[in-house]
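Appendix B. Raw example, untouched.
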Amino acid sequence: MSVVVSEHKKAKERHSLAEPAAENLYSGILNSSVCKPAPVGGLWYPAPLQEGSPNLDEEKLVLHFPGGAFVLAFGQEMYGRTVSKAMSQYLGASRTFFAQYRPSVDDATRFPAALQDVVTFYGYILSLGVKPHNVILSGDSAAGNLVIALLRHLETSSNLPLPGGAIVWSPWVHVTPHAGEDYESSKNAANDCLTAPLLQWGVEAYFPKHEPTPEELAYISPLHHPFLTRVPLIIHSGTAEAFFDTIEEFAKQMIDVDGNRVKFHFTNFASHNLIMAYDGVGLEHEVESILRDASSYFWQ
């Protein structure tokens, strides 16, 4: 976390702290006796949005959550600039808020702590006066899982208005206690950028200490737990990543839910987490194609 704190100091006015929202917004699965909502921070790109700013009706904002197997917090400046560049150029977003939820490091930050944090961030963005239909949720890898969980929460247990859309990049949708073995048995594991020990560490840190209830498992591991959402959703995966088969299956399950507006995008030969890696591997055109389609899907 020291890297994140250091970057926030350097960012100065672009760093904002989101305080927990009203208690009733953490209802249902988020109401935990052990994990409590806490202040969480993030970085604005290119500049912060202030409450009461002019032209709020025209603001189109991406709220992006980075991955990290639930246990890592990446350098926000490097990856935040990469993500915000794409969102600005191709999705048409006027701003991106790169939001760092709490990694799972102890019992107080296990599930559902990170999900509490994404609710906190979403409530914070709306409190600034941004119109809900102009907010796009975005998350990669483990944070793609969290965005999916947030959509489920918004549909079932929250009084918050729905966002204009959501896009998840290489979401970790099959999260089990034997995540390391799951990864090693997948067909693309040998050539992908993830590792079995990292994923195993992630699940052991993230899973609640008690035996999860069926409802909790649906939030933790959305594969085979599709749900109805009124939010347009785009799911992306690379065909060369180890998660591809489970992501494709989850996308099919969501598409099959009557009333859902879900699209599945895939990029041939791409490995895990295109939105974070595209700038260094020559795949900017592929990201452009996905986000231009998303722009028309969400906002036109």
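End of appendix B.
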